[in-house]
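User: For my dataset I need records formatted as: sequence, then structure tokens, nothing else. Please produce one.
Assistant:
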Amino acid sequence: MTGSYDVENDEYIVHKWFTKLMPQDEYLEDYAEWVPGAGWNDYESNDLWRNKDFDESEGMTMVPKKSLYDNSANYAKLYDDNGIPNSKLGELHSLILQTMHESN
């Protein structure tokens, strides 16, 4: 279940509700299969399926193809060479990152 809390009215508003359907135990073997999750992946450097051009600074994550979704030129305009915001948008970006850091 996902939702938000309305402070003024002191109530929780449900946005989505998820239901997991599972067969009864006697039918489990016939209608379900166990599949390992991503935690079972083995990320060896010599793996044939591993992208050799992957930027390790992104961490272990799903990263869109840079050739299709590269926005680094626009991102570079937000800050000067010393990492100081050089526009209102840069200041906003910096404040958002600061807020995210404080909330985590």
